[in-house]
Amino acid sequence: MLSRLSLLLGAAALLASLSCSTSKEQPAADRSSAASAATEAKPAAAPGDIPAPADVAAPPADAERTPSGLAHKVLEAGTGTAHPTATSTVKVHYTGWTTDGKMFDSSVARGESISFPLNRVIKGWTEGVQLMVKGEKRRFWIPAGLAYGENPRPGAPAGMLVFDIELLGIE
């Protein structure tokens, strides 16, 4: 069984060493679109879920945007000065939600940070984490084209994804 974390990392080598519950994943056909999610009430969080931020449905007007369409906003300033590169290995804490407010993965909820090379994750992570410095916490709205797409492989979340990422270190 694929772990949710392996979907994020996209590295078969990590699949054997990491395992997470997939009980919160839903087939792509069961997910609401971002447009309808914005007008519907957010579903109740499952036990252990971290509640979705109020702006999960779409980036707020004050979010910065990159040319690729990645939107982001600093939640907590960092203390570092160095930025990771696309080939850096980083140590992070993160939580990910679909735009309808469903948490699909969280190192925070598991209570364990994770380290991985930035060139082994979705494009939105590779691009976004390079903007960060150690100690920073940032929210990213990652368009489908920089994530898993609108029609991803089974078990992967579809559409735009929202992540809160804290950069704990650059290894």
Please give a quick description of this structure:
With 171 residues, the protein is of the alpha+beta class. It has helices at residues 4-9, 12-15, 34-39, 107-110, 123-129; strands spanning 64-65, 71-76, 89-98, 103-106, 114-117, 137-142, 161-170. The protein contains five helices and seven strands; from the N terminus they run H-H-H-E-E-E-E-H-E-H-E-E.
Protein model, in words:
By secondary structure, this protein is an alpha+beta fold. It has one domain: Roll (Chitinase A, domain 3), CATH 3.10.50.40. The chain is built from five helices and seven strands. Strands 1, 2, 3, 4, 5, 6 and 7 form a seven-stranded antiparallel β-sheet that branches. A hairpin with a 4-residue loop joins strand 3 and strand 4. The longest helix has 7 residues. The N terminus is likely disordered.
List the helices and strands and how they pair.
Layout: H1 4-9, H2 12-15, H3 34-39, E1 64-65, E2 71-76, E3 89-98, E4 103-106, H4 107-110, E5 114-117, H5 123-129, E6 137-142, E7 161-170
Antiparallel strand pairs: 1-2, 2-6, 3-4, 3-5, 3-7, 6-7
Tally of structural domains? 1
Distance between the termini: 29 Å
CATH architecture: Roll
Mean pLDDT: 80
Quickly name the level 1 CATH class. Answer: Alpha Beta
The number of distinct helices, counting runs of at least 4 residues, comes to 5
Task: State the helicity in percent bands.
Answer: 10-25%
Gyration radius, rounded: 15 Å
> How does the overall form come out from the CA principal axes?
globular
Q: In terms of per-residue confidence, which ranges show pLDDT below 50 for 5 or more consecutive residues?
A: 1-42
What is the strand tally?
A: 7
